[in-house]
């Protein structure tokens, strides 16, 4: 029995270690994803808008087409300009010359230049000019000229303060995940998170299966009183592993983002995807660390209370039950040992933390859903779709399992102990 339970304990420890590491990896990966796709570096970044507007300008200039009506209007305007130039040139030629050279030039113009013929060919000149403008090669040159002016205007403005931060961040992320661009990075992050999430729940259910085996063994050996002491001590080791993983693994994750923001600008569709508004993921130990590091005294006090009643009390209770069961009567009957073994449950806040986190999740989830719903817009010119990915994590399942398992062990102890538990 001991050998089998030690092997099972090793399995639980392995599952717990993997779950702890995967939880840390998931938290870091999601933090990286949130940093890369933060609304500060996306929708609220001047650099992002410059790139999208530049792309629109470039596309509009290269691919613009003149309709038949626009061509007729343009031809009329070009003809008017050419007629005006001819009229002005004719007026200059009719001026009385003051020198011999001027008289010779006026004679040559009168003799060889027939303005009536030129005016008759003005419509053809206008058509040729329009055809040149509509030529793909000419449009490409015009696009390059427009983009050069656009970039010149960009450099003349104040540089976006987040630009350098963004490029530094992206360079680091590209090296870390071995990708070359943002699309590849987001694809890899999404794939990694999907794989990690599947593995986390597998190891989580693996730990719970180990606990079920232990409880089943208690039922099978309920009449073998000689084995109860050893079985109980080994059961406590299973509880310690549950507690360690439950305290260190992420319990709740708050993730709010704009999934899609689409609108039309200058006839072109502009789209922002996966813009993260807020992300945070914490374990119980992480919450305690944050609270204790705060400068405010009330935050520190709350952190100390959670540390004392939700972490130290459960550990002390588990240790006291083992001491009470294994020690001689004098030590087992020690008031402090008996108090922590049988009566400290009413002071422990582990079960309260479980309920509090569940209530926070329900309340926060409903609040975020209602608030994000106010941002949702769907019209012909603008579409905004928000998502609330707030969720309880496997760490919560492990911690609530520890609380229930601890209650079962306390009940078992009262029936197997050879000392007075009252």
UniProtKB/TrEMBL annotation:
<protein>
    <submittedName>
        <fullName>Paraquat-inducible protein A</fullName>
    </submittedName>
</protein>
<dbReference type="InterPro" id="IPR007498">
    <property type="entry name" value="PqiA-like"/>
</dbReference>
<feature type="transmembrane region" description="Helical">
    <location>
        <begin position="300"/>
        <end position="326"/>
    </location>
</feature>
<feature type="transmembrane region" description="Helical">
    <location>
        <begin position="200"/>
        <end position="220"/>
    </location>
</feature>
<feature type="transmembrane region" description="Helical">
    <location>
        <begin position="232"/>
        <end position="252"/>
    </location>
</feature>
<keyword id="KW-1133">Transmembrane helix</keyword>
<feature type="transmembrane region" description="Helical">
    <location>
        <begin position="347"/>
        <end position="368"/>
    </location>
</feature>
<keyword id="KW-0472">Membrane</keyword>
<keyword id="KW-0812">Transmembrane</keyword>
<dbReference type="Pfam" id="PF04403">
    <property type="entry name" value="PqiA"/>
</dbReference>
<feature type="transmembrane region" description="Helical">
    <location>
        <begin position="396"/>
        <end position="416"/>
    </location>
</feature>
